[in-house]
Each structure stands twice: as structure tokens, then as C-alpha cells.
Protein 1
Amino acid sequence: MVYSASSARTVLQGQGDGTMYLAKYVGYGFFGLIAMHIISRLRLDLIRRYTSVLLGASFVMLVMVKVPGLGVEVNGATRWLGFGPLQFQPSEIVKLALVLHVAAVIAERPKIARNIRTVVGPVLAVGGGAVLLIAAQPDLGTCLVICFTMAVLLVIAGLPMRQLGLMTGAGAVLVLLFAILEPYRRERLTSFLDPWAHAHDEGFQIVQGQIAIGSGGIFGNGLGQSIQKIFYVPEAHTDFILTIIGEELGLAGIVGLLSLYGIIAYAGLQTAKKAKGIYATLVAAGITSLILCQALLNVYAILGLAPLTGVPLPFISSGSTSLITLMVSMGVLLNVASGGHAHTLSAVPQRSKSARDRAAEDRHRGRRDGGARGAGDSRRRRAAS
Amino acid sequence: MHLIDRRIGFIFAVFLALLAIGATRAAWLGVVRADDLERAAAVQQEDDITIPAQRGSIKDANGIDLGVSEPAMDIAATPRLVNDATKVAAELAPIIDRDETKILSSLARRDTQFVYLGRGIPATRAERARKLGIPGLEFIPRYRREYPRDWMASQLLGYVGTDGNGLRGLEYTFDKQLAGTDGERRMVKDAMGEPLEIRDTKPVEPGKDVTLTLEADLQDQAEEVLAEVGEKWKPKGATAIVMDPHSGAILALANWPRVNANEPDKAPEEVNVNRAVGTNYEPGSTFKAFTVAAALEEGKVTPDTSFPIGSVLMYADRELRDSEDHGMGSMTVSEIVKYSSNIGAVKIARALGGAKPFDRWIHRFGFGKRTGVDLPGEERGQVLALEDYSGATMGNLPIGQGINVTPMQMMAAYAAIANGGILRAPHIVDKVGTTPTKKPAGKRILRESTAASVRKMLEGVTGEGGTASGAHIEGYTTAGKTGTAEKAINGKYSEEFYVASFVGFAPANNPKLLAAVIVDEPEGDIYGGQVAAPAWKQIVNFALGYKKIRPE
């Protein structure tokens, strides 16, 4: 509930530009609200059971993206699947599926997490496969989010720190290689170090973003008063939405937003601590880290603390698949939070199980054609109720 | 579970720390670097546009426009953005009246993002060009200077450069008053250059009108007469000035050859010079009036003082003769003026006391320095310093040779004789905006009576038997002096090149109009009485009627 209330306002903040996105949000948001609501009331076991189906489906979609004619290319990257206006990004679903998968695998035999060797098979093989597929799109940002989230999950599951350190080192080398091989990523990397020297080419986005934040000052220029959003800052409504928040609401707005993420972290990890059973704990912690990792990666890139990788800001950016996945994730997290409630539902006999199956199918279908329908609005509703 | 709880706490701490670092960095950008970044935002978001001020008009004494500014456009292009340069040039050239090949070569440039295709295109033409909807063209509003009367008073008015600055003539002298102050408009624009917000940061102050004492009709007449002189005598150049001798107000100032004020660059450089102030010439006999006035003022002679006049006067190594031997044996001062006797003038100067007092009187009449007329490019003439006088000098100066003056200096000095003895700087600007200009104060250099008796003597010149009897105007008394000066070429007086002039006023005893006609190197005849006096008569005759001066 806390997260719901917090994210609602920020979604509104982001919507400065045009009724098209707004309408999309409201429409998808309503849908997302229902999805979240249903999921939060499902039996947790059910989610666990269908994890493998979700994972399999998302892998299939990842491969489909690569099939000519099905994948949609934008800005040199093939990340989307879909026809005409209905598009969605399988990699966003993969994130959630992987978290659920890893949680399930580790919960089955918690001991495997205590040693790197035992973890390699079920966790790293599947995760690594997904990462490679996504890296091929290419989408470095999502790869990083997945890697970080996996790492956090392993830390929580009890992987020895030294082994984790080794793994991180290896991963870092891989990522660096990946970054250096592709010219546009190399440029992003170098421009990160001194964006103002590249203000007219590679550093353009960063510089424009920082100009927006700087001209907002402490309290901003007021809602809707951003000038930078009008074609100066590229991707102002998606990856760079934070800069517009900075310009319109100032430092106060940014710090407020970061605080909200802080609250999500607190509430999510509290939920994990209090959850019944290791599976629930790992699911809650995994989803929380997923959100935090993504948020931090986005914020750091925009503030010039990390190279640009192109991840949306959770709950705020208008990337639709990202939003609906996050909503579904929040539904799972809420489910864990109100754990007892879910268990009472699970006691219901056969008849209701088939109904639940139908509900799960609906969920899948919804995602497939709806993409990231508005998670944001759904939360707002929820907060109000 | 204990381990997991600890690990969860650890992860929470890491997340909090990372968020805190983010917040700190945001604070750095939003507070410490805010000024820098805001400036960077202003640089790219704001544009200051200059709004040109309309330049004031130049009007004649009756409010007729002589120079006006009309709305116009500069048309510029970003060559890179123009798709079909050949087609664009072909379409544009006839509309904006510019050379097609020039436009094409401008559009072919790849070394610049900005090139003018035409400057100061009249608004109507520019509008038609704009309607073509050619991409890559830019229309910058401005004003364009036009001279509705084309050829009239061009050298006097001057002209305005492509950037709108007065470069010559009155446009130059009164540039500050005419120009006004450009306004400034700040535009906040989006990244595509579309304006989001516009506000005027500096109001436009239009330029002030400059009203002249010039009378356009009189000017027209003077120019027409000079054109006839030009056709008849094929001189190098000619000047006519008409002035109110009492106030020093210039009523007409004509130069020949004429220049089309709208196309000053089509005339050779020397023709654009305002000869009335910008040329030096030896005044010749017109100068004798000052020799006589000085001797009279100092009481050395009276109009009736008689001097023996032979046919030749030896002066130093030179033989001095009159233009024709009058064979009179002796002449009074009046007769010396009337017949323009060189020998007589030299003898009067001798009676005045020679070089020293004569030099003083040259300066007293204002020669050797600028008159202070409100026109640019005024020359000061050349007056020999007293210590540089040679033995022959006093045989030259009294008859107006060996000294260089400007037409304007002659007008100012003659005005003193005409108005009763006051030397005053001539002026041509009456009002700037609605404020009358400060009129120059005069300085008395002659007694009324001296001026009156010089006028009386000059009246004789246009009378029966005088050197300019042809200048007499029916119904009026006229007075003046002819001049036929040899031009010094390379330090020697030529027998070939002369300056013929006539300076005079009417009515003779109560002058309302003073005029001078100066013809440089006429062909066919050389005498002021033949070349300049008839032109003078035509101009003054018209002017007397135009100014409604009653016949006597």
C-alpha cells in the first residue's frame, strides 16, 4: 500500500507532454490496476507453479524478437515485439520471470546458494542465457539490471561474499568488453567521463539533461514549465524523465522521488524479512531489488554518475511494458506482504482453482498485446481505495 | 534465516547509500552548478532579436520627403538547406530583382550557413518571394532608404549603407538623430527554434525626422539650370547655392553632374562630393569685393577715391593687366569694381596698407577655416601664411588669385556684405524632430554703412556696362560680382583652365536672396559674366517669384 501511494504522484509528475501519452496511461493503467489486484490475491503457490511457464514464454519471445518481421527496430536496437501500435518489450517480462525462477530454485534447496558451484547450474545458466539474448538486441541496460538483481538475490540467499566478488569481477570484465566492442556504446562510455566536451554529439543527452536539472534549481520552475522537454532533452518522457522532474520540481522533486524509492526499498525488504518461507522472502527481495537497481541505474546515468545505458525510470517513464511488468511485480510483492490473505485463498477447493487458472491466462494474454499498460494509474486507484 | 535477515539489512543499507549519493549529486547539479547550467539553458533557449528602428525622414522646408525609410527585408539563405539551387535562383532572381548567377553562386557555397541573397528588398517584393515557400530561406525585416526624388540633392542628402548607417551627406552628419534606437526582443524558443514566449526587452525608438531649410522647388530649378549650364559649357563640374543672407539658411544647393541618390555607387567617386563644401577653388575677381570692403571699412578709400590705372602694372616680376584695357587713365573705386579692374584692386589693397592688414582681413571674412555649416566633408580652403608671402603675393591676393576658398565660404562672406556686416555660419537643417536646431550666432565684421556702400558698388556690376550686365533681372535691383579665375595647374597659372563664377544678391539694397553659381573649367567661354551670370539670373529670377519678393 505504501508503495502504491508513493508512486501515484510521481506518475502524474511525469506526464507533462501531451494527452496522447496521458490517455495511453489512463487506459493501460486501468488494465494494470486490475492485473495487480488479481495477482495480489492469488495463492503464492500458484505463481510459483507457473513460473516455469512464464520463463519459457518469455524466452520464446526473446527469440522471436530476433526473427525478422516480428521484431521491431527502434534506434538501431531490436527490443520490441509487435504489430503496428501494439508493441511490447519481452526483456521486461524476462526480468520478473527470472526473479521468480531464481527464488523458486533456491527455495527448493536453499543450500545451493551457499556455494557458487551449486548455484551455477540452475541460476546462472538460465540468467546468463537471458542476459546473452538481451545483450544481442542489444540492450545493455536491461542486462545490467538483471545482473545486479541476480547478484542481490544471491547475496540475500547467502552466497559467500568472496565468491560473489569473483563473479562480479568476471561480470564487470564481460560488460566492459561488451561496451567497448560496439562504437555507440564506447562513445557513451567516453562521453560519460566528460559530457561537456561532447556536448553536441555523444554527450548531448547528458548535457541537455543536466541543463534541465540545473535550471530547475532547488524548487524548480513549476509543474508544466519545463522548456528543456520541448525537443531539447531527447527521450524526455521515457529514460530522461528525471531531468524534467528536476526542471519542473527542482532538487526537491528529485530528492522526493529518491525518497520514494527509499521507502519502496524499506517496505519491500521489510516484507521480505517478515515473509513466511524462504521463497516468499526471495521473491519480495528480488522484486524490490529489481525496482531499485533499475531506478538507480537510470538516476545515476542521468546525473552523470554512470554511463548511459538506457533503462526507464520505474513507475515514472512511459515505457509501457516496463510499467505493466512493474505493476505485476508489485502485485506479487503485495501478495507476499499480505501473505496470510493469500494463504486463506489457497485453502479454497478445486472449483476455484480452475477459475484461478483462467485468471492467470488472462494475465498472460493481457501482457502479450498490451505491453506495459499503465501500471501507474492502477496504483493511484489503489491508493485512493 | 538469521543470515538472510542480515543480508537483507546489508542490501537495504547499500540501496540507501546509493540513493543518498544520487541525492547528493542532484544537489550538486541543482544548487552548486545551477547558475552555470541555467546560463547554458539561457544560451540555447533564448534569442535576442533586434527590431530595427525606422529611420527618420529628411524633409524640405515644406515637409516634402527627400529621403524616407520603407519597410523591407533582407533575404538570406542557409545554402545547405536549399534543395534545387538552380530552380530557386531562377525563380527568385526576377522577383527580388537580383542577378540570377549571383544568387546561384551564393547558394552554391558550402563554407557558410548564412549568405545574403538580397538586402533591402522592398517589402512587397520580399513578400512575393516569401510566398514561394522555398525552404532554407530567411527573411529578416529591416528598412530600406529611398529617395523619392531620385536625382535631387543627392550629394547633399548623402546615402545610407547596406547596414543602415548614414555614410555621406546629411545622412552621415545627422545619423544619430535619424537612426533612432533599435529595439530588442527576447524570444524563448524550443529546440526546433519555434518561439514559446516573446517579450520586448528594449522598446524601439524610431528615428527623428530632419527638416531642412531647403526648398525642393527651388532646388529643382537650380539643378535644372545647372544641367543646362552643364550641357552648354561642358564643365568639369558646377555648383549653385541659394541662401537667405540674413539667417544663413540655405534654400538650394545644387551640384552638377547629378547623381541618382538611389544608386550612388553608379556614379564616380568625385561626383558624389558635395562641391559646395568639398572643393577648393581660386575665387578670382569675386574676391575683389572683400578687398574694397576692407579698404572702405578702414577708411583708406571712399567709393569715389580715384586711382590712376595704366594698361600694365609691373608687380615684382609680373606684368599685371586688366582683362581689357579700359583706356580711362584713372578709375574710382566704384568703377574698379564695376569693370573688375585688376590693377585697381591691387592699388586699393596697397592703399589698405599692404600684406599685413590684408592678411588680417582675409581671416576676418572667414577664409582659411571652415564656415561651420552643418554639412559633412567641408574643406577649409588654403590661405597663404603671412610669413610665406613672396614679392608677387600682393599682386595676386587682392584679385582673388593665390588663395583657395570653398563656395560655402564665399557665400558666408558675401552674406556679410548683403546683410549689413554680420558673418554667420550658413545652415541647412531647420528642425530635428520637432525641435528647431540652434542657429549659429553671427559676428559683426563690417559696419552697416560699409556694407551698404559695397552693395551699391556691386549693383553697378549688373548695371549698364558692368561685367555682368546680363544678370540684371527686370523689376528688381541686383548686385554681384563676376569671377574668372585662372586655375593653377602644377603651381603655374594655365591659360587654358578657368573657374567662371558669379556671386550676387537681390534686391540690391535690401537683399532677400544671395546666390552663387560656380562653373569649373567651362569650355567655349571662360568669363563669369558669360558663363555663370546668366545661370545666376535664371535661378534668382525664379527664386524671387517663388519667395514672393515684391518687385521694386
Note: Chain A touches chain B at residues 152, 155-158, 207, 210-218, 227-228, 230-232, 246, 250-251, 254-255, 258-259, 261-262, 265-266, 269, 272-273, 278, 281, 285, 289, 292, 296, 299-300, 303-305 (CB under 8 Å).
Protein 2
Amino acid sequence: MTDLEDLKRGTDLVKRGFAQMQKGGVIMDVVTPEQARIAEDVGAVAVMSLEAVPADIRKRGGVARMADPAQVEEIVDAVSIPVMGKTRIGHTTEAQILESVGVDMIDESEVLTPADNEYHIDKRPFTSPFVCGARNLGEALRRIDEGAAMIRTKGEAGTGDVNQAVTHQRAIKSQIRALEGATHEERQQWAREHEAPAELVHETAEMGRLPVVNFAAGGIATPADAALMMHHDCDGIFVGSGIFGAENPEAMGTAIVEAVNNWDDPDRLAEIAANVGEGMKGQSNVGMADEEKLQGRGV
Amino acid sequence: MFRAGVIAVQGDVREHAAAIERAAAAHDRKADVVEIRQSGVVPDCDALMLPGGESTTISRLLHTEGIAKEIVSHVAAGKPVLATCAGLIVASRDAADERVEPLDVLDVAVDRNAFGRQKDSFEAPLDVAGLDEPFHAVFIRAPVVSDLGPTVDILATWDDTPVAVREGPVVGTSFHPELTQDVRIHRLAFFEHASA
């Protein structure tokens, strides 16, 4: 007899499992219920609800916070796909509010103004899964240790320049490759140097990849950018300002979804990327001054 | 050689590929697992896996890529299919939602997100017909079977609602057998199939 009493919610298996179901998909930033419906129609696997897209947050300046819960709730009601919400780094209360509103995953995001200079949110007690950004393997493993069920590259949000997302994904991959070839004691030493739990370091080295799903985020603006990140072994893609900052969001969204599915077929990509209208304007993030960068927040 | 295609337009593909390989090994078979993201591959497969993911996305891409009609032909030929979670929604005749265009290869109607949002997702042991011991089932924003045709057998229920069914060569589950190391559901669907 199946016993309903044996039911368990919010376990690592259930939280990481949610992230696994997002693989091969595109998660799109949306500000309004109308945008959320467009994202769902063009094939997004989930939407990220926020007050303003990163490019606008960048322009506007000031303190960037969690979106109004009423606005998040409207988006939750508008679509059947999962809805994610952004909390400030270390802002446990914003995360609790987002969980209460019913978001399916919480992004503890450097795009918003950090609330805590030392600590990230202790994500383990939450029933909801979290995604966190990382620039390298040390950051990724520290976030997983805190309870993150998904890792995304930080990239440089709101720039429309894929450069930093590539840089961060390459860093994570090359560090994993180095650990695969390392001895037990070298891995122990690496863990100490990078303030990462040794257990997770060994697990990652043995698997040859992160123990949770690894998405790309931060500056992905075109179908070709999305396909490039899949080429770099990402499990899926977050697109921030790239959809609704484009001339034709429907065409751009559709093309990015199809590009992720066909990332390794250049002939199909040529068709998919054609005539989608102008992408977001963007700004190069290579020579950007450190104080303008969002990626240094929350290490 | 047993050629199994995992529909890979979106969802947790790698987990299913690994489960199929382990299930085949348990039957002293070797599986050649292929990931399917474009048309033209399904006709060469002995079995198909419709994984979990987002049913709106998977449904859309199956039709765009021309894979949908190939799956329908695969089932018409009596070849096995395992459809889990979003896969069950896509395989159904009615998803009660215009955002999903189901394939109608399994005579069931489904309710999407029947248990609620992610915070209501859960794991629990589940009795499954044909298995001696309960199966540890992981339900993630899972659908349930709300209605079924006369040729559909119920393999498992949760709170009196069907969550695993079989009709001919097609097995559908609300839960995710690929998220644990237990491959009994994959064995049931692919290697203990009536005509296999």
C-alpha cells in the first residue's frame, strides 16, 4: 500500500531534479505577464520574472531589488511553464517572499544590488530550488555547498556581449579537466585553496562535470550566441535583455529556442538566424571598468 | 544491438540514456542510445524515450522539426515507447491545454501540474503493478492521468489517481524513473514489453 505519509518535499533530489528538467531549454527574462505569454508561446522552458531587464537596470542605476510580489504573482498566473524570480545576494527574506508567492526557482543574482557583503543565502532550508551565478569552479562549488541546485555562468548581464559568459564557462570546464587528472592530495589542496568543500571537489572530478545542471547566462543576445554556449557544453541558456531588447522579440525568441536545439548544425543555424530583426544594441564588456561590472558581486 | 532513441529536443536526456544502458545490461543486451533532435532518426530506432522537461517546449519543437509524425508511425508499428512526465503529456490524446499539441499515441487525458508548483513537488515510494518492491518515485511539477480509454491499463496510482499507465507498446509515468538508480521502469517498458 502506497503511504502518503512517506512523501518528502524540498529534498536535494527534488530540487536538483527540477533543474534537470530545464536542460536543453531557454529561460527568458520577462517584466510583464504579456512578455511571459510571448516567451511561453515561442518555446521558453521557463521565465525569469524581474522588475526591469538587466540592460535597463544598468542604465537606471540606483538600488536594484526583488520585483513587486504582486507583479511576480501576475506572471505566475499568466503562464503554465515554471516562473523564476530574482533575489538580492544574501537577502534571505526576499527569497522567502518569492517562495511564498510560488515561484518555482529562485535566482540569487548579482544583477540585483547585494544585500550582504559576506554571506550568500543559506539555501538548504528552502523547499524551492535556487540557481546561482559563478565565474569559476570555486564559486560554483561554494554555491552548491550552500544548497544551489543549478549553476549559471555570471557572464556580464545587460551588455549583450557573450564574451564574459564564454570566459566563465571555459574557466569552469578547464578547472574540472585539471582536477580530473589530479591526484587525491592535489584535489584536497585545490579544495583548500579555493575554499570549496573537498567532497564536492572529488565528486566533480570523478563525474567530469558539475554535480548540478550548468546553464549559460550573462550577455547572450543572438541565436548564434546561444548555440556557442551549447558548443561549450552548457546544459541550457538564460537570455536576459536579448529577447525583449530586440527589434522583434517573437522572432528572436523563436530563433534562440530553435538554435539551442540545432546548435551543432550550421546549415540549420544559418536558416534559423536569418531575418530575425535587429538584436539588442549592447556594449562590449571586455574593456569595461571593474566598478561597472556586476560579475564581481558575491564570490 | 538494441537501438534506443531518446527524444532530445529538450529535457533530461543524459539521465534517460544512462538508465536505458543499465536496463539493457540487466537483460544482457547492449543498447545503442541515440539522441534525437532532428527528423530522420526515429525510423531506425527499436524503442523511443520521451523524457521529462517542459511539455510546451517539447511539443513545439517536435512539430517544428518534423519528429512528431515519426513518433506516431513508430507507435503504429508496435514499437515500445516510455514517456515520463512531460513525455506523458506529449504522448497523451488530450493535455487540456491549447499550448500543447499532444501526439495522441496513448489514450489518456492528462492534467498538467496537477500537484501544484515546484514547492509541491515530492518523492515517495510507490507500488507499481509488475514490480515486487515499491518504486521510489520523484514527482516534479507532475501531471496526472485524468481520464483513460478502455485499452489502457493502470500500473500505479497516487491518492487514487493514475500516475503510471500502459497501452500496448506505450508506457507513461507522471514521475521520473531516470532520477534514481532504479531501472525497473525502463526494463518494464523496453525489455519486458509484451511483444519484445
Note: The interface with chain B takes residues 1-4, 6-11, 13-14, 17-18, 20-25, 40-41, 43-46, 76, 80-82, 99, 102-105, 127-129, 257-258, 261-262, 265, 268 of chain A (CB under 8 Å).
Protein 3
Amino acid sequence: MAYQGNPPGTPPYGGGQPPYQGGQPPYGGQPPYGGQPPYGGQPPYQGGPPPYQGGNQYGGVPSYQYSDWIHRVGGYLVDVLPVIVVGIIVSITRVTALLAIFWLAALGYQIYNRWILGGQGQSLGKRVVGMRLVSEETGQPIGTLNAFLRDICHIVDGIICYIGYLFPLWDAKRQTLADKIMKTVVIPA
Amino acid sequence: MRCIHLLMFRLVRSAVIVRRAYSVPEHITMFSAGALAVGAVYPTIMAHTSGQGIPCPLRALTGVPCPFCGLTTATVALAHGQWKTAAGTSPLVCLIALMVAGTVPVLAARVAGIASIPRPASDRARRRITRALSVIVALNWLFELHRYGFI
């Protein structure tokens, strides 16, 4: 049986942003996310975001509504492959000026990628693979600064023999340790 | 021959193209298959590179092994059929290998479309499994600490 969307009875999560439903109280009148308007004056998000309510994550929401580990690896490879390929070519040429330009370009690329990852929820790799990085509390992109902080948090993933990067294989929300620290999830776009 | 081609096509398509839901042991099994494949060629790769392997950052920084130290060595040993070496390096890898061996038929059934989508485990079951795995990882850490002469 192929996975062709959400099973009956589960909220739509794989299809990107859940719809904003005006003033309807979600889930029988529960207050939405503490009532604070996210991102400068927007009304509180009151749609039906399934996984980030802190409730019964394991019994109720199937974990395949989050992006798989292999898709995340695919997105990461798409992000880093251009740098690696160009780096190898530049290294072969052994031209110092070219190498300096490459390092600057690689730094710029990395910053740009983090900028769009935080702002739009998608780095270039995530866009190619079809994933979004969002806050598990608001369902919105986490912002550029938090995207950089998340990168720093990846140190925790690496410190224990890089096992933190494998956490999406078994974690219910498919989060790495950095995701858990930053309260982010990666979902199909 | 045409039937075999069709079956192969279906298997590859279902495994690669169709986004299918797999259970946690199946995810780990798929990853382990990849790890074993890499482990099989790892010595060859190391022979053509620096030969340093993948260092554990915690051990490199502090000298203390982490609970998962020895995974690479044990996986390479397993890929070459050296069970004793693997068990002597990381018993955790041997436990994972046993789990993988038991999961392969289920995974094959899932990929072939015979088995249905797995049901998520209950909160209670998750807590029990997490507790059990925590104990196993802690024991493996004690083993690694002993292996590196800390206890």
C-alpha cells in the first residue's frame, strides 16, 4: 500500500501549511499557542496543525508526516554537493586567488542558504527534495538567527559519534538533537 | 523474464519513488544495510586515504569514549563476517544486527506492498522501549569505558 496522503481522520500535514481558519477555535476551544500573535501583528494561527500541540504525538499522529531521515540526507547532500564539487575542482587547479574566491563564495553560499532556510523554511536542498523546516510550536519558519543557532546546536549531534544525526531514524518527530533543542521539525513541503 | 522485470520494477518503484511509511526497526534496517555496504568497502577507502577513519569528537576532545564509540570498527568487522571482533568492540552493534536480521522479512513484505502501513506504538510502549534502550546504551557505555581502561 503506497502512502498517498494522510490516513482518514488525521489532519492534513503533508500538504504544506495548514489553512488559516479565521476565528474558529481549534480542537474544541483550546487556546491557540498561548494567544500571542506570531510575526508582527498577524492573527494567531488557528488552523489545524497536527503534530505540534504537545499532546499524544506517538499514539495519534503517525511519524511519517515528518520528513524521513533519507530525505533529510538528500536535502543536505544537495546543499553541500556544489561546494564539494567546486572545491575539488579549485583544489586541483591550485591557484591561490581562485581558492580564496572559492572560500568566500562558499561562505556566501552557506550564509544565503541559512538565510532562506530561516526565512522561508527551505534551503536550496530542502526545496529540491520538497521539505520545510518549521517551528514545532508555531508551524512557521524559524527565522535566520535561529537557523544559525540551529547550526551551532548540531555540535550536540556530532559530539556522540554523530549519532544525533541519526535520531530521525527512530524519533517520533524525526528530529535531530539540534531540532529538539531548537524545537523545530522538518515536514514535507 | 518479463515477469521478473516487472517485479523488479515494482520493488524499486515502491522502495524509491513511492513515499511509504516504515516502522522504526525498518528504518534502522535500511540504514544498517547501507552501513554494512559502506563497511564492506571501508578498509579499501581507508587504504587510499589518510587511514584515520571517523574520530569520535568526544573522545578526541576529552579522551573519554562516548556510548557509541566502536560503531565503525564493529560495523566493518561485521561486514567482513568477524562476529567476535564486532562483539569485542561494540556489543551494541551485535544487538542491532540481531534486530536487523529479524526485521528484514518484514521490511521485504512492506517494500513488496504485502504488509500494510505500520501502526504507531502507544505512548506506554514507547516509554518502555525508550527505558530499555537507555539501559542498553548505558551498559554499552560501561563496556566502552572498560575497553578504554577507564573502569
Note: Chain B touches chain A at residues 14, 18-22, 24, 27-28, 30-31, 54, 56-58, 61, 66-69, 71, 113, 116-117, 120-123, 126 (CB under 8 Å).
